[in-house]
Fold these 2 entries.
Entry 1:
Amino acid sequence: MDRKEKVDSIVHAEYVLPMDEGLSVVRDGAVAVSDGRIVSVGSFQEIFREYQADKVLGGNGRVVFPGLINTHTHAAMVLFRGLADDLPLKEWLERHIWPAEAKWLGPEFISDAIELACLEMLKAGITVFHDMYFFGDITGITVKRMGMRAVLGVGILDFPTMVAETSDQYFEKAEAFIRDWKGDDLIRPSIAPHALYTCGPDTLKRAKELAEAYDIPIHIHLSETQWEIGEIQSRYAKRPVHHLEAIGFLSERVLAAHCVWLEDEEIDILARRRVNVSHCIESNLKLASGIAPVTKMLKAGIRVTFGTDGAASNNDLNVLSEMSTAAKLHKAVSNDPTALDTKTAMLMATRWGAEALGLGGIAGSIEKGNSADLVVANLVRPHLMPLYDIYSHIVYSMRASDVETVMVGGKVVVEDGVFRNGDEAAILDKARKWGEKIKNQ
């Protein structure tokens, strides 16, 4: 009898969705994991014939899919959830969010907020997020402690904040952060010039040069509101995408969040420059920013992904709900029930998200050699019965509470719905105390 190869763990499920090029579905499947990586994917019989492990996860009535990717958020803003609602973006930012940030942001706030954000995302099956904010070192340390993966964008602005007084200071801090974190196993840096209305052409060009020098992504808000379009046209006599094209900013390393107000010619430019887009449908709906032309972008060949934006404008960090809302809404606005089908939505939430962040071959798919970033969800739920199509159920019916087990880099961080890398009750208690403090300011 042949000796079985020993692996660290085997994840078994009724359905395994590798999110590979062929969008295969493995019935009664399993994934062998060792040293943080995926060793093999196949049928339950194949995997158990070739491998043995002390730890076996999942089981019947389960589905395994790659960890979800949240390509645009401001994670620490989770402590401002519900602080200011039902307002236009400009008023929401200038009268409520920016003053609150100026008053409260600091090391303790960031650490406690990131704990809460990571807890929420991990329990919703998100294993990677792309952030745009401040205090990157504290964020990185906290994310690693929580056992999550993140691409952390260092915020760049043309006006003073609590973290920098001048453009030079922003860039000095950004470059120091990039040097310190580049090569980390869980944290990757990106450069994040906030938007065209907060960063002038010289700042944007400098951000691009820094990204190219260190081979990192660029994270920026783009064409989010009609006000932004008018503002950029008044400053530069060009629409936002044309302005970025004129200054040579656009490339495949750019991930542009929102992209709501695009004309056809701008879509063509983004496609030609291979710019990645983060679609934040729930935030855009809540702020009445508009509805991005996602079906047009997809037809043009743009890699569109999902972002939640910050919990202050969403008000949650849940890619499952983003998928469901987007897949249904774009059918209605295009008057086409075939628009944004379930397999495309899953690709946007997994494989394409990883590729957009430079994590292709690491996250986003369950393939040999990739990091074992896996989600096990329970299908034995009233709202998931009966089951005809697994993609349909995940996109249209699944809830964050259906997520049972989450693995990042082969390490189990959520098991049977319980966070294993820290004291969940203590994290929630700190969040409650911050809420009381901010409310009673």
Note: Residues 5-66+370-419 form a domain with the Urease, subunit C; domain 1 fold (CATH 2.30.40.10).
Entry 2:
Amino acid sequence: MQKAIAEPITRPSSGSLAFSAQRPLRLAYFVSHPIQYQAPLLRRLAREKDIHLKVFFRSGLSLKKYNDPGFGEAVKWDVPLLEGYDHEFLPLLIDSKKLTPLKPLNYGIRRILRTQHFDAVWVHGYSTSSSLQAIMAARSMRIPVLLRSESNLVDRPRSRGRLMAKRLFFNWLRNRVSAVLSIGEANTDYWRHYFGDRFPVFTASYSVDNDFFQMECAKAAENRESLRLSLGLDPGRPVILFASKFQTRKRCIDLVDAYLHLEKSSTARSVPYLLIVGSGEERTALEARAREAAPGNIRFLGFRNQTELPRFYDLCDVFVLPSVHEPWGLVINEVMNAARPVIVSDQVGCQRNLVQNGVNGFVVKAFDTFGLADAIRNVLDNQDVRQGMGAKSLKIIQSYNFDANVSGIRQALQSLLPGFRA
């Protein structure tokens, strides 16, 4: 995806800016909090010798055990979130026990940009007080702004008034942002819809630490049968896996219904297991529905942390994410690194990039439990087909990596700061 013609926001200069190892480009990144998916990318970008990255967080909530409303329980991530890159926490005017658009309320962003002499600003999201402060401060100082967010056009219904207000907001925002970083095709459509076809869009597709997940899944394969035994799973029976928050929009209830359709049409030897990893507000409803299955066929395994998940990716025969209003679905990136077929709904944002229907999995219509059951059956019925689909998943995911992300960011910076070489 190449830059469209537009007038980027740049600062006045007495001459062409010259960036080098002695004079690296200074990039400020503003984001809500340390995020387990982003930390490896930030470490990778920090290795670029001609870019000095500094990350500014609104909150450090995720660094300690905290109550995650999506999981419905206290969570503490077991992967490093701050190692390997320069960072700072924004000063607080109002603290908060949770993240909302207005809380915590930070200050000092303009002073930071002025005193630390940044050449460009990168902002994640546009709906918080801090992200808007960063965008407006950079605009007033004529510092180019890159914007990245997860949004797509497959969204919950909104009133005409809300849509009009959103359109007005984006007309305002468009004139304060220099370029956007797209996480995928659905996200690009979103930016084109609101910012127009000529606005600069660069690809920085959502990715995970492929090396980590491939290495951990390979290790898990050596002990696959011991994990199966510890879970009390009969050898030879296939495994369907779901791993996410138990939120209504994740539609795990649709997967349970699809499983019940499958169970009724399967022989005793071929009936699969359904393993459900996660927790959240829908757990009671899910467990109630799951009681309609034969005892032991549907297992709830609770929340599992980042370093535990590869064991379950390796164990499964197919992974299913039937979400609606899902901006991307990074768990699909993760499980594709285990060389497994994936099945997603047509409202999962990554499907246009990562899931080739009938090649490495299937895309089914959201809420269609019979269609979902058919897709699962098509994967599980033929072991050779299943393995071929898994191999295709692994091949596809190789292109969605942090090196490609860094390349997209560099291209965007070069377009805004001509003295910088991509």
Note: The chain has two domains: 25-207+401-416, 210-397.
